[in-house]
Design a protein that fits this description.
Number of domains: 1
Number of strands: 0
Number of helices: 2
Order of helices and strands: HH
Strand content: under 5%
Largest sheet: none
Helix content: over 70%
């Protein structure tokens, strides 16, 4: 269970780093291809996070909150 949480936090940090790199490229006015590479990595990381959460819930590794209120 702890391993899944560490992986998720690592992926979230990786996603934020790619967002920061894309912002830096955008502010410097460099090529759009370079910026889209970082944004593409961020989207792929988001998809991996969602899939990992769904698999972890389906296998019972993590349990969702039964009552959110």
């Amino acid at each position: 269970m702890l391993v899944v949480k560490v992986i998720l936090v690592g992926l979230l940090i990786f996603m934020m780093v790619n967002l920061a790199f894309a912002m830096r490229v955008m502010l410097k006015g460099e090529s759009k291809e370079k910026m889209s590479k970082f944004i593409g990595r961020r989207v792929l990381t988001s998809a991996i996070i969602v899939i990992l959460i769904l698999i972890a819930i389906a296998t019972g590794v993590i349990t969702p909150n039964p009552r959110p209120y």
